[in-house]
Amino acid sequence: MTERRITSRLLWNYLHDPSALAGSALLLLFISAAVAAPWITPQNPYDLTTLSLEHFLTPPLWMEGGAWPFLLGTDDQGRDILSTIIYGCRTSLIVGFSVVFISGTMGILIGLLAGFYGRWLDIATMRLADTVFSFSTTLLAFLLLGIFKHGGIPVVILAICIADWVRYARTMRGSVLEVKQEAYILAARAAGAGNLRIMLRHILPNSLTPIFVVVAVDLAVVIMLEATLSFLGVGVPLTEPSLGMMIAIGKNYIYAGMWWMIVFPGVALILLVVGINLFADWLREELNPKIERKG
Question: Is residue 38 one of the residues assigned to a domain?
Answer without folding.
Answer: yes
